[in-house]
Structures are given as C-alpha cells and as structure tokens.
Amino acid sequence: MTKLMSGAALALILAVPATAQDAAAPDASAEQAPGGDAVVGEPAEAGTQSGEAVEADEDDDDEEEEAPSEGTYNATGMFDYGFSGLLARENRTDLAPLTLASGQPVAGGEYTIKSGGYYRINIVADGSQELALSGGDFFRAIWINEIVIGDTEIRPMGVHSIEFDADGTAVLSFVAVLPGRYTLSVPGSSGDSLQAVFNIQ
User: Which residue range is the domain that position 170 belongs to?
Assistant: First the structure.
C-alpha cells in the first residue's frame, strides 16, 4: 500500500509541471530559434499583457497624435523651407523683365510659373511715353510681397496697375497663388505685343 501511494504521489508531482507548461500562454517577447531554444526579445510594455495584439497599440498612438495639446496647433505641409521660410532669397526665381517703351513689346514671351513659387520681376520703363501695366485679375491671383521703386519699398494690400510717367524701374516680388492664365497689359491696347501673359500652374 505504501509503495502504491508513493507511486501515485510521484506520478502527480511529475504531471503538474507538464500541465502548467501546456496551459501557459506564449510570451510575445520571446521568439523560437530554429533549434527550439528561446531567444529573449524586448520585454512587453508596462500595463500590457504579452498576448495583446500590436494593432491595438498602434490605434492608441494614432489617437494621441490626432489630439493636439491644448493651445498648440502644429500645421504640417509638403515643403520645408527652413528657418527663413518661403521668402528666403534661395527660394526666389528671377523672371525676365517686362519693358514699357514706345513701339516695343512688353514681354519676350509667355511666363509659366508654379502656384506656391516665389518670384521677382523687373518692370522697366524707358520714359519714351507715359505707360502703365494693368491687370486686376493677375494681381488678385498672386500675393505681393513688395514693390520696390528706387529706394522705396511698398508692401501693398492690393494693386490694380503700375504707371510710369518717366523712366525708371519697379521691382515686383510675389508668390503665385491661384492657377490660371492672366495678363498684364497696357490699358486701352489690344495688340498681343502690349501684354504679358502669366500661366500659373
């Protein structure tokens, strides 16, 4: 009887660890090597169980990113213009100048520019005639940084035309905004040579 009881006790002792191993959940932080040995990975994050799906954690991260901290709004965009922003000198493109002269074409051809691009163009008058360039639609399709005439810098809210009574140069720097086809033309003229065409893409 004693041998029978000691044999049953021994069988019970040997069966308990095997049962515990079968019931234990696999550890997400351990991987199996080809030889069957366990390879220890990174421990599971605090507050999570080893059997939780990783997707649930990713969803939580998305929710945290969508909710900005109070009083802070971070706008992200496609372009990184650096500390000086879009109007930095290295971002500016100089366009061929416009000419206001009696009997001369205003531009050598059409301009093709990009929406969001920063540009500078000289408008040069030779003083042979009192001439102007007008184009309300063009000026509404751009954002004017400044107009420089001599040593004077003008930062207007809006422009309809620029007129020269004598010779001189006006330097217009602007950011193209609204895509479309726009013209700057000499008021009262109908010829193609007396206008400058800007295609904003």
Answer: 89-200
75/152 Cα distance (integer angstroms) = 34
Look at residue 83 and tell me if it is in a domain.
Answer: no
User: What is the pLDDT at residue 29?
Assistant: 47
Instruction: Kindly provide the residue ranges of all beta strands, DSSP E only, lying in the chain, ordered along the sequence.
Output: 30-32, 38-40, 92-94, 98-100, 111-113, 118-125, 131-134, 142-149, 152-154, 161-164, 168-176, 180-185, 195-200
3 state SS for 103-121: CCCCCCCCEEECCCCEEEE
Give Cα 5 to chain centroid, integer Å: 79
Which of 3, 199, 185, 189 minimizes the C-alpha distance to 107?
Answer: 185
Q: Is residue 186 part of a domain?
A: yes
Q: Identity (one letter) of the amino acid at 29? A: S
- What is the 3 state secondary structure string of 52-91? CCHHHHHHHHHHHHHCCCCCCCCCCCCCCCCCCCCCCHHH
Q: What is the pTM of this model?
A: 0.60
Question: How many Å apart are CA 192 and CA 197, to the nearest integer?
Answer: 9
Cβ–Cβ < 8 Å for 61, 72: no
Contact 113, 172 (CB under 8 A): no
**C-alpha span between 8 and 96 (Å, rounded):** 101
Instruction: List pLDDT tens digits, range 126-174.
Output: 999 999 999 999 999 999 999 999 999 999 998 999 999 999 999 999 9
